[in-house]
Design a protein that fits this description.
Radius of gyration: 22 Å
Number of domains: 2
Order of helices and strands: HEEHEEHEEH
Helix content: 25-40%
CATH class of the largest domain: Alpha Beta
Distance between the termini: 57 Å
Strand content: 15-25%
Number of strands: 6
Number of helices: 4
Structural class: alpha/beta
CATH topology of the largest domain: Double Stranded RNA Binding Domain
Length: 188
């Protein structure tokens, strides 16, 4: 049996691809998801959508990023944006919020117990690790009645290391994809 450097390179490439996929899967797995929908509604004939006017995000950049991600995911699921002169089958909107938080292990380590009789050792020279918890809420709304038909919520910690524009876009796309994976809901 002879050793082939090309075969070794291919194996290394496959191994690297596997590692990258596992890392991406690990990133997506930290998304906390919640869903709800109107069980009386038949979603099977939905084909077209339009944007709901009341959507919000912390800033215009985040708004554009989330809106683009929702459009991409809905398009890949087979939904098309309604033509101007046609009523859509549903409207879609979103709300995005972010909040600063301390990791749970640091919250408990920084709490006082009792009347200051015991305090875990915390070095005051080391600042606490902070992260931002981001939540995206995607709503599907009846275009005529204005009633909420389906809601998906995705919440995850946002890594401070996400400084590049493309990584932020991928992070949002992963979250929106995870949320809309459950839309339309399957009949019960």
């Amino acid at each position: 049996m002879s050793f082939s450097p090309v075969l070794s390179f291919r194996r290394q490439g496959r191994f690297l691809l596997l590692v990258v996929l596992l890392v991406l899967a690990g990133c997506a797995s930290n998304i906390e998801l919640e869903f709800g929908h109107d069980p009386e509604r038949n979603f099977s004939n939905f084909q077209t959508y339009a944007w709901y006017d009341r959507t919000s995000a912390p800033n215009q950049v985040a708004y554009n990023r989330i809106r683009k991600a929702v459009d991409i995911v809905l398009y890949k699921k087979g939904f098309r944006y309604a033509e101007v002169d046609r009523e859509p089958d549903f409207r879609v909107g979103f709300t995005a919020v972010g909040e600063a938080a301390l990791p749970a292990d640091e919250v408990s380590a920084r709490m006082d117990y009792g009347n200051d009789t015991w305090r875990p050792p915390v070095d005051p020279n080391i600042p606490p690790r902070k992260y931002t918890r981001g939540t995206i809420i995607v709503d599907v709304i009846d275009p005529v009645e204005g009633e909420l038909l389906w809601r998906g919520v995705g919440s995850r910690s946002l890594d401070e290391g996400l400084r590049s524009q493309s990584l932020k876009e991928e992070y949002v796309l992963e979250t929106v994809r995870a949320i809309l994976e459950q839309f339309p809901p399957r009949p019960e």
